[in-house]
Each structure stands twice: as structure tokens, then as C-alpha cells.
Amino acid sequence: MEIAISIIIGLMILGALYAIHAKDLLSAVIACGIVGYGLVICFLLLKAPDLAIVQIVVETITLIIMVAVVLDSSREEQFSKPDLDGYLSIATTIVLIVVLFYFFKISIETLDVFGSGSLRMAGPYIEGATDKTGSANLVTGVVFDFRGYDTMGEATVLVTAVLGVLTILRIKGRK
Amino acid sequence: MKGMTIIVKKTTQLIAGIVFLYGIYVIIHGHLTPGGGFAGGVIVAGSFILLILAFGSNVMNLTKEELGSTMYENLATLVVIFLAVSGLLIGARVFFLNWLPKGNLGQLVSAGILPLYNIFVGIEVASSILTIFLALVIFKEEISE
């Protein structure tokens, strides 16, 4: 299974690289879809159908919205040569990537191997969730009962995102 | 945004209702089967987006729809927070308390308050995604006028 996931992740990286370098914006958007749908297959292989359903639905809607936007505006990418600020940002990005990767390497050594043994909090969740919440779907029981704060945070984040979209996209003021 | 050909319109008329019903099914069976408020809400929003893409934006009165969808979104979030606070008022006084009776495991009406959370989060997600799509359509046309 690890080999299959590695192959899919390789394909996702190829799709992301093509999306950066594509001349036509429509094919770049479609290539972004490779990343999302590859992630769906990864979730299914890792036995997480809840996440897979959410990912496939959100990916489809995002693709539709992006395609509609690209067809409405221009299909050509407006490219400009990087100046001094551009080179400064590139250097900062590379330094950040190196630092983040270093700390990731340090922290990953103290963790268990992926999938071996459950985490300390996961045991009581898996054993007691059905009795305590009465929900046959364990994921819903955890998401809306034990981790209710997280779900409320997600809901309010979505509201804030919509408010931001409405504020930024409205170029002409309301009459 | 202009509408599409008559073939697309007819197919959309046949399919959009079924997509809508499937979204409702995923939402209200969220505590029994995989899925739930987030996935079902996006499916419901997808049925409306399908209609708008097929029929064009001048068929429906989209400015009114945007006002409606923002209102439903904020109201649904408010209801979710009220449901969470209701745990503070009843019983053991814990935030997000599941105070309704649990019922039998595996039945549609069970799991106490969880289906209510699922339904209102579903409404909220559906109207949020629809609002973002409508904002892209409406404001684009306001500029080109």
C-alpha cells in the first residue's frame, strides 16, 4: 500500500509542477485537479471515507468555480520579469523552506512510525465514542461532540472567509 | 454569464433536483454513514451552481439570492452557537453538552443533538459556498455594466 501511495504522491507533485509552468491557465487549473483527486485516492487507501467524500466534493466545486473564472477572464498568464523585490522574496522563501524542513526533521524523529499503535487520546475515543454519543458514525461523534470547539471554529472561519470575499471582490460600492 | 444550449438546460432540469436530494440525504444521515454537514452542504451548493451555470445569470434575480444566502449563512452559524450554549443552560452545564436522549444506535432519530448540528452546519456550508460563487458572478457583471 505504501508503494501505491508513493506513486500517487509522485503524480500529484508532477501535476503541481505542471500547473506552475503551464502557459494556458485553463490547463493549469485542470492540472491542479490532479493534486486534489490524487489526495482522494490516498484517503480511500488509508481507510478514511469521510475525508474522501469531503475532499472529492470540495475539489469538484473548486474546479468548477476556477474554470468559470478562467473562462470569464483571460486564459493567458500575465508574466513579468522579477526585479530586486522578487529576488529578495525568492531568497526569503528558500531560507524559510530550509528552516522548516530542519525542524520537521527534528520533530519527526521523536514520533512513532505512521500507523503503528494509536495515540494516547485516540484509545478512549475509539472505545467509548459509540456509547457516549449514540452516533453510529464514529467520525461525526468525535467531530461534533468531543471536538465541538474545533467544529465551531471551522464554521466561523468559513463565515469570515465569505465576509472577506464579499469585501474584497466588491470593487463598486453598494448604492 | 450567458446560459448554455437547450440540451444542457434540459439535462440540468432533470439532474439538479436529484443532486439536491442527495445532498439532503448525506446531511441527515451524517451520524449513521460517512459524510455529514460539510460534505452534504457542498453537494447542495453544487446543485444551485449547476442551475446558475446552465441557465445563465439573467434568468434568476441573483442580487436577491445573494442577500438570502448571506442571511441563511449567518443565521445557521448563530443557531449552531446557540445549540452549543444550550448545553450550558441544561443539565451538567458543559459547553457542547449532548443533552437530548440518545435513542437506539443506528436509527435515523438517534444520537441526541448531533443531527441538529449536522443540519445547521450543512445549511451554513451550502450558503457560504453559494455566496462565494454568486459574488464572483454578480460583481463581475457590475463591473462590466
Structure, described:
The complex is a heterodimer of chains A (175) and B (145). By secondary structure, chain A is mainly α. Chain A has two domains: 2-120; 121-175, no CATH class. Chain A has seven helices and no strands. Chain B is mainly alpha-helical. The relative contact order of chain B is 0.18. At the A-B interface, helix 3, helix 5, helix 6 and helix 7 of A face helix 2, helix 3 and helix 4 of B.
List keywords for this structure.
heterodimer, A: about 180 residues, mainly alpha, 2 domains, about 75% helix, globular, B: about 140 residues, 4 helices
Quaternary structure: heterodimer
Q: What is the succession of H and E elements of chain B?
A: HHHH
Number of helices of chain A: 7
Shape assignment of chain B: elongated
Q: Residue-averaged pLDDT of chain B, rounded? A: 81
Strand segment count of chain A? 0
N-to-C span of chain B: 12 Å
| Percentage of residues in DSSP E strands of chain B | under 5%
Concise summary:
The complex is a heterodimer of chains A (175) and B (145). By secondary structure, chain A is an all-alpha fold. Chain A contains seven helices and no strands.
List the helices and strands and how they pair.
The complex is a heterodimer of chains A (175) and B (145).
Chain A: H1 2-21, H2 25-45, H3 49-72, H4 84-109, H5 122-133, H6 138-146, H7 148-169
Helix pairs in contact in A: 1-2, 2-3, 5-6, 6-7
Chain B: H1 6-28, H2 37-55, H3 62-89, H4 114-144
Helix pairs in contact in B: 1-2, 2-4, 3-4
